[in-house]
Model the fold of this input.
Amino acid sequence: MIKAGIIGTGVGLKHFEAINNYRGSRVVCILEKNQKRISKLKKKIKNVDFLNSEKKFFNRKDINFISIASYDEYHFSQIVKAAERKSNILVEKPICLNFKELQKINSLIRRKKVNFTSNLVLRKNSLFENLRKKLKKNNIYYIEANYFWGRKEKLFKWRSKTKQYSLTLGAAIHMLDLVCWFLNSRPISVFSKSSNKVTNRTKFKKFSFATYLFTFPNNVLVKISADGVCIHPHFHTVKIYEKDQTFISDISGQFHIKKINKKLNIKKMNFEYPDKKNRKNLIRGFIDSILDGKSIQPSIKSLIDLTTACLFADKSLNEKKELKIKYLK
Ligand SMILES: NC(=O)c1ccc[n+]([C@@H]2O[C@H](COP(=O)([O-])OP(=O)(O)OC[C@H]3O[C@@H](n4cnc5c(N)ncnc54)[C@H](O)[C@@H]3O)[C@@H](O)[C@H]2O)c1
Done:
């Protein structure tokens, strides 16, 4: 039986909804450092212990599942503490913020043999699941995937204070994961460019827009962008170009383009998007895998590779050149 502890009550409340009462699971305690938030939540959520001491949280003997939805800078140390006590671990993206932390997570999770995954929710989106089924992977030559955040104001809260905050690890990571999952593959190299034109006079001191060109095996080119400042609805645009067909999903709609008898045929598709109701299925899928002893998706290997590729994308920004991505063993 899953007995969970959750850290953080922003998106962490979505974790609560996904876990509590699912296949007999229970959320036993919640760690939240904001006392005001605790007082409010206590009125709504009963039968859960609210804590503000990390030490007390990690000493709890009655939890076997730790769900980490704290700010990015805490993920690494909290993963280490959860792995040391051999809990099942679900962590929000990104799993960590630098190469040193990534190496440690890679060796620790494997050594402790704990169940581990990260909340890459787009994999459970009905549109993207259906697109994935329709693709002829070997015919793809180009993919464009853009993360339009459309919530610029969020950059000025905790993200402005997080020293190593990166829009690559915060936003582009979702699109790169989607592409790796579509292609069942990982990029060979990356060349990135960034801009802070819209935010340079604000307290957000990092880049607020970036674009990345990834080369995948078989010369598949992938252009990703992470746009933290756009005047655009929150949206994940995907365009997939194959030898014989094209798929486009953007704010104007979803289209499947083919040539039939030498004539261009543009068919509208109507898959669910943004499909928020299915987001909790990633966490529930993780619980299913633990309870049924099945393989975990996204796997630790795919998460380590994904984070490596994102860290190389940021390294390319600093070094201003295309870099071959060196993956961890
Ligand atoms: N998977 C997704 O699509 C998705 C969506 C949103 C956010 N996130 C991730 O979730 C994390 C939290 O973001 P958010 O949007 O929920 O932020 P938020 O500001 O809305 O909420 C975070 C809450 O966690 C608490 N908190 C932070 N660090 C803590 C710590 N060390 N101990 C105890 N409490 C802590 C804060 O007080 C706050 O109440 C980030 O890592 C973010 O990248 C992921």
